[in-house]
């Protein structure tokens, strides 16, 4: 379990980013962390891996205080950052130098992921494209078998076939011990992959619900023609039509439209959250 309790944090000479932030993430789930530019997603992820320390409050991962960065904790987490610098060495040399830090590292799995992403261990990291480097880090991260896998903008730079491979690989990699967190702007890339959505806005968690509850509570309509205004929680113009989010009164699970949902939350979180009013959640 990842538990952030009463986290407050500010970068030097900047205004407060997090103020009394609370969040609990459970094993067995893939979480989508969404938010506009500068909302605080990367900073939150860095707290989870001990690369930033809270000014007050605590962040624990499977009981370890992340700011202590104990080896026993670090071997059980892997972060694929949004930006990275990789040395001018072959994939094989990188693996040899880094796999030793992860007690459950699997070379067989790595080979399979590299084959899936059409990468060769003999390639030099410096000669790979940004997207290929990203795929290598995702493959390496998965092969660590760390219980906490955090991916910051993983689909950035991936072509369309690689994005669907990514979704397939991530879904297959999840087990009941793992917590996978994917932060992205490309909300459509998370469709049919994530179990839960957390939305950050100016350092505050403004939405935190499971996909199962969302599809039970909300319906995503591509035309709101004939829908009474009082039933509409959020509306926008889409290709000349009024599309939007309504309360799911019919009770039939609806397909979650991630883009509409994200837009609705950012524009009017209280209205969207109102549909979950009698559900109890621990943030
Ligand atoms: N090293 C830093 N020093 C000072 N301020 C920072 C630093 N890193 C981030 N910030 C500020 O903290 C806020 C949150 O940034 P963060 O990178 O966490 O957001 P984000 O949601 O990941 O953004 P993006 O989607 O654009 O990557 C922003 O206002 C940013 O300017």
Lateral arrangement of strands in the main beta sheet: 6-7-8-3-9-10
Provide the residue-averaged pLDDT: 92
Q: DSSP strand (E) fraction?
A: 25-35%
Second CATH tier, the architecture of the largest domain: 3-Layer(aba) Sandwich
Tell me the span between the first and last alpha carbons: 13 Å
Query: How many individual domains?
Result: 2
Describe this structure in words.
The chain has 283 residues and is an alpha/beta fold. It folds into 2 domains: 2-11 and 25-202, P-loop containing nucleotide triphosphate hydrolases (Rossmann fold, 3-Layer(aba) Sandwich), CATH 3.40.50; 210-274, no CATH class. The protein is 29% helix and 27% strand. The protein is built from 8 helices and 13 strands. The chain has helices at 41-48, 71-74, 91-98, 107-116, 130-143, 160-173, 211-217, 258-274; strands at residues 2-9, 18-25, 29-35, 56-61, 64-65, 77-80, 148-152, 179-183, 196-201, 204-210, 218-221, 232-238, 241-247. A 6-stranded mixed β-sheet has the order 6-7-8-3-9-10, sandwiched between helices. A 4-stranded antiparallel β-sheet has the order 2-1-4-5, with no helix packed on it. Strand 9 (196-201) and strand 10 form a beta hairpin. Helix 4 (107-116) runs antiparallel to helix 5. The chain is globular, with a radius of gyration of 20 Å. The chain starts with a strand and ends in a 9-residue tail after the last helix. The mean pLDDT is 92. Adenosine-5'-triphosphate is lined by residues 11, 14, 17, 35, 37-43.
């Amino acid at each position: 379990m990842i538990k952030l309790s009463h986290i407050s944090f500010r970068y030097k000479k900047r205004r407060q980013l997090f103020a009394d932030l609370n969040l609990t993430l459970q094993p067995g789930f893939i979480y989508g962390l969404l938010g506009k530019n500068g909302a605080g997603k990367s900073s939150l992820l860095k707290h989870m891996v001990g690369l930033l320390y809270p000014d007050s409050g605590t962040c624990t991962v499977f009981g370890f205080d992340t700011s202590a960065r104990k080896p026993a904790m670090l071997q059980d987490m892997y972060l694929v950052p949004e930006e990275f610098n990789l040395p001018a060495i072959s994939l094989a040399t990188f693996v040899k130098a880094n796999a030793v830090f992860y007690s459950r590292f699997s070379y067989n799995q790595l080979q399979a992921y590299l084959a899936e992403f059409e990468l060769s261990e003999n390639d030099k990291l410096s000669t790979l494209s940004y997207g290929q480097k990203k795929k290598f880090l995702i493959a390496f991260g998965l092969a660590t078998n760390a219980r906490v896998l955090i991916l910051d903008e993983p689909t950035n730079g991936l072509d369309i076939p690689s994005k669907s491979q990514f979704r397939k690989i991530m879904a297959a990699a999840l087990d009941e011990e793992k917590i996978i967190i994917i932060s992205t702007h490309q909300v459509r890339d998370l469709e049919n992959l994530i179990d839960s959505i957390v939305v950050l806005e100016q350092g505050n968690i403004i939405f935190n619900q499971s996909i199962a509850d969302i599809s039970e509570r909300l319906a995503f309509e591509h035309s709101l023609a004939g829908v009474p205004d009082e039933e509409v929680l959020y509306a926008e113009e889409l290709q000349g039509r009024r599309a939007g989010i309504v309360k799911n009164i019919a009770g039939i699970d609806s397909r979650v439209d991630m883009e509409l949902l994200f837009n609705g939350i950012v524009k009017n979180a209280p209205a969207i959250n109102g549909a979950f009013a009698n559900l109890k959640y621990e943030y």
